[in-house]
Amino acid sequence: MTRPPGRALAAVALAVLLAGCGGGPGEETAPKDRPATTAPSAPAAEPARPLERSVPVGLRIPAIGVDTPVLRLGLAADGTVEVPPVTDDDRAGWYRHSPTPGQVGPSVLLGHVTVGTHGDGVFRHLARLHRGDRIETRLENGTAAGFTVTAVRTVRKAEFPTDDVYGNVGRPELRLVTCGGPLTGGEYRDNVIVFARLATTGPAAS
């Protein structure tokens, strides 16, 4: 796929923009009895066929109790990536300069780990996901794109893997991004990134 104008800058700026993630308690986002990082591994089955473009409107992650509407995010006036607003009704957001879920390429969704005084963000428990967990995106055209987690990585913001998250791939994939690690001076040290591959497609559940 073709990179839209400003996309490279947006990718680099992502780690900075997600630094505070709304602020919150200074605790690790990954449970202490589980590793926050799993080695990448492709599923054995062939992936589902790519979908036509359709904007995501909902996201479900049963393993961590996420069922959220999805906002559209673009670039701020300074060329950095927008993030969802900090509200008590926290929602995930799809970066509209990435493919829609199910299209060939990496579709990128962002969410907060905490939302200030409102408490937990929609991606508070993202680091608990494991390889093989299911993710479902509901699309505007009534289709559902189901993904299987292939890897969960926790990385320092200073070492954000821009190419791994935004770089072109030859199949439909999904990236979920939030903050992680310890909170110091109002900023989280790390990013948590979930990598997933398209597994199923079909009508969205009503």
UniProtKB/TrEMBL annotation:
Keywords recorded for this protein, A-Z: Hydrolase
Keyword Glycosyltransferase assigned: no
Coiled coil segments of this chain: none
Region Disordered, annotated ranges: 22-51
Domain of life: Bacteria
Low complexity bias (residue ranges): 36-48
InterPro entries per UniProt: Sortase, Sortase_dom-sf, Sortase_F
Matches recorded under SUPFAM superfamilies: Sortase (SSF63817)
NCBIfam families on file: class_F_sortase
Protein name: Class F sortase
Origin species: Streptomyces parvulus
